[in-house]
Design a protein that fits this description.
two-stranded antiparallel ribbon
Length: 115
């Protein structure tokens, strides 16, 4: 049952990411930060529902601490990360230095060796 709920949560996050990307709501290079943030929030929610035994640090489950680290990391990346500049889809070809220069014929250079 957990697999289905986890899959639905990740699919919902994927739908949000696709929507954000299609609407250009997130700067280039920061969509993965939104994924990390969203995954951390979803994981924090799931881990807070669990009641089984687990290792704890400072009274909280280790999994909750990892989720909080993901959330803080995603937020920090969004706030302080450098967005990539817009790059054209296809780079223009560099102009040739001398377009009219003669190109030597390779057939002339392939003569059999003397001897």
């Amino acid at each position: 049952m957990w697999l289905k709920r986890g899959s639905m949560r990740v699919l919902a996050l994927m739908a949000v990411l696709l929507w954000l990307d299609a609407r250009r709501k997130v700067p280039r290079g920061k969509l993965f930060a939104v994924y990390v943030l969203g995954y951390g929030v979803g994981r924090l929610w799931v881990e807070s529902l669990r009641i089984d035994k687990a290792s704890k640090i400072l009274g909280a489950r280790v999994n909750i601490w990892v989720s909080l680290i993901a959330i803080v990391g995603g937020l920090a990346w969004l706030a302080f990360g450098r967005a990539r500049a817009e790059e054209p889809a296809f780079a223009a070809a560099a102009p040739a230095d001398d377009v009219d220069a003669e190109v030597p014929d390779e057939a002339e250079d392939r003569s059999p060796p003397a001897g």
